[in-house]
Amino acid sequence: MTATDVAAARDRALLGGDPARWPGKLPVRDRLAILFDPGTFVEDGLLAAAESGLPADGVVTGIGRVEGRPVAVIAHDFTVKAGSWGALTCEKQIRILERADRDLLPVVYLVDSAGGRLTDQMGFFPGRRGASAIFNLQIKLSGRVPQLCCLHGPSAAGGAYMPAFCDWVGMVNGNASMYLASPRVAEKVTGERTTLEEMGGAMMHATVSGCGDEVFDSDWEAVAAARLLLSYLPDDFRSPPRRHEPVPPERPEWDGLVPADPNVGYDVRDVVDGVVDGGTFFEIKARWAQEMVVGLARLDGRVIGIVANQPSVRSGAIFVDSADKAARFISLCDAFNIPLVFLQDVPGFMVGVEVERQGIIRHGAKMIAAMASAEVPKYSVVLRKAYAAGYYAMCAPGFEPRATIAVPTATIGPMAADASVNAVYANKIAAIADEEERAAFVAARTAEQQADINLLRMGSDLVVDAVVEPDALRDELAARLVDADRWTRTPGRRHHLVSPV
After folding, report:
1. What pLDDT digit, counting tens, does each position of 363-375 carry?
2. Element (H or E) spanning 406, and its range?
3. Nearest of 354, 347, 364, 351 to residue 419 by alpha carbon
4. In 6, 72, 373, 441, which residue has its Cα 20 to 30 A from 291's Cα atom?
């Protein structure tokens, strides 16, 4: 073996496999070029499986820089055995994750893999350095460093858990899929006939299962989004996110965006645009459980997490999926030292036979537990209605927000005044035969209830810490965030709670 032979093997590995296997896809090294700052990627294990004729054994690993920050990468090469995992494929992935764990490096996964290589099942499946070790390391890294996944093609069988253990998953429409068994296997086992897109496609996971965070039309858009998302996240759990130069909001004036009538819908994203730095709202899971809006943004240059009820979708009530969506996002922000701003306009948790059977109490408890456990600075803003246990879940005063702030349209109570009257006086109302007398009685009792939850009363009793005009909300929050700059975690706290499943 000569130096020329080694150089030739290296060149072959850089070329990858058959380019005909890339219809509509970017080659793996082009994806890396989009992800990393030019000339910063340092690769490991390029010659893996060179003697077997498998370029880099189907996976590219190494470290590059994103806006100057070191970031580890695992990038599958679908042109080599469909990106499947053999013994060396697993070993390379394990080694880079071990380094990320040791050096606290964010990890980006560019996933495009048919799963385990069945011709090398003893290599990838059962042992200490097999696929299970990859997942073990991902879980060890969770909450310590950001882990982002761009899903460019299949993520099959056990390999589907690689995206599942990440903090964010961007999927390429028409190419990306995530499934534990192919449609052919599913038909054999269950008798179901389905398509890959229906069972595990990008749009299904982004709208139904919630396993996907966003859908993109091309490979480069997904990678660019991951690169952008990294700018909101710190290097690791010990660090705060980087500050940026402040930018004026897209809506410097948003008075009137929130209708006084609690039954009239509006898009809470318009309110977000009036509060945060212009163009900085990075929404997460926008297509799933749309009655809840969550995402990262900057406010006066500081990164914040936003949890907002969406009155234009199902009145902003909290359902099973939206509780899970909020709980996961809150946990992400708490892990990476990102203050949370809750924008409340919530009629409560959804009620009824169907949601009770789905476990709304259990899922709601999960959201409340995540919110209560979050140590980062929390701020609760009541935009309009804040009723029932939904008020609690959106960080009521008992859960120790730094401040509860209300705008003049805010109302806080166990339920709406008219609903409360019907609940308390149902028998009395039914017993009044005269229609005018009945209406007068209801109106009087409703006025009493409204007086009890009057905003001035809430301020007088210290339920709310400040009442501000809508146009002043951004400055109010910005000033309070500055006051929290010296926040640190309480030492000696328990590792984590036993979360409701």
Report:
1. 999 999 999 999 9
2. strand 403-406
3. 347
4. 373
